[in-house]
DNA sequence: TCCGATATCTAACATGGCAAAGTAATATCC
DNA sequence: GGATATTACTTTGCCATGTTAGATATCGGA
């Protein structure tokens, strides 16, 4: 690990200009990093809940279905996560008078506070590990952020 | 959508030289990509099982504990996943005569075949999405592979 | 009015993490 | 040699979070 992308061995055909080896490494690494991050609960909130909290902040007032689409998960997942956030008082679900099938989701003051707190203390795991990387590696990571974002942009589905 | 908490406009203090904004974007994106990849089941095999299959291929003959360390998960997780792979005939677990507490894990011919098949057909999701990126983005991603690998290198824990 | 479409929730299930406890083999110490 | 500790793995039980299928309520147009 930590080595440069190897030169494609003989017979490592490439698709769309990328060697199978690199594709595999990319896929494996991304999957694993996601797992590590997801298990990294900075606070009491799991990754899924934190992600949802931020999505609500960005989109509020918002319907559950839009949150599901935004997070790229199914509505039932959002429903359950929302219930958790509501239970602990971070999120508010109010009836929408204009369409009573939906509800209006928003952060409570406690939710907003929690969000800011997470934002400040969030960087623990990631920044700690980033600090162990060389400057070149960090630069490469930062340079790849837009590509990573585009990769999981649901608009590209 | 692919946007992330564009948080602190002003006063975006940096930790270890990286802005909070970038850290947040990185974390959110990596977590999400991992989720997407994980749900992307090439074949009947889940991400965790495919990952394990490849790890066995790389390390065989190998002990279960080493696989756990390599995958960065706990021994019980590996045991369960191994049992699944053994059940479907892709993996062999044999007693180690030199130390009967451990067992020697290796791929069966069917496992090796499956692995090659996955390798060939693996490129579905990732390469398809990569092909929608600009050349610069792809280059940035490839350049970031070593950094990504180092980020989740268990040796850095 | 009625009926299909829409938005959400409930229920049931699968996966895959974990920690704690159990089991068996090996190593150590007197 | 035999008691004890350590090691390696498995089993068990729990939790979080994803899914799909089906129920329910509402909306909106023919």
TrEMBL record, chains A, B:
SUPFAM superfamilies: Winged helix' DNA-binding domain (SSF46785)
Matching PROSITE patterns: HTH_MARR_1, HTH_MARR_2
Domain HTH marR-type stretches: 23-150
Organism annotation: Actinomycetospora aurantiaca
Name of this protein: MarR family transcriptional regulator
UniProt key word Repeat: no
Key words, A-Z: DNA-binding, Transcription, Transcription regulation
Entries under Pfam families matching the protein: MarR
InterPro entries: HTH-type_Bedaq_tolerance (IPR052526), HTH_MarR-typ (IPR000835), Tscrpt_reg_MarR-type_CS (IPR023187), WH-like_DNA-bd_sf (IPR036388), WH_DNA-bd_sf (IPR036390)
Keyword Magnesium tagged: no
């Amino acid at each position: 690990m930590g080595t440069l992308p190897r030169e494609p061995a003989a017979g490592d055909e490439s698709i769309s200009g990328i060697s199978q080896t690199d594709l595999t490494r990319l896929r494996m690494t991304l999957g694993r990093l996601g797992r590590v991050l997801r298990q990294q609960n900075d606070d009491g909130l799991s990754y899924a809940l934190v992600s949802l909290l931020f999505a609500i902040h960005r989109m509020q007032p918002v319907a559950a279905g839009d949150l599901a689409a935004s997070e790229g998960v199914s509505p039932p997942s959002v429903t359950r996560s929302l219930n958790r956030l509501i239970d602990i008082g971070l999120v508010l679900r109010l009836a929408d008078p204009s369409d009573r099938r939906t509800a209006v989701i928003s952060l409570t003051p406690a939710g907003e506070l929690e969000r800011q707190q997470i934002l400040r203390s969030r960087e623990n795991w990631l920044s700690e590990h980033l600090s162990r990387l060389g400057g070149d590696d960090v630069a490469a990571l930062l340079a790849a952020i837009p590509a990573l974002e585009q990769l999981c942009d649901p608009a590209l589905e």
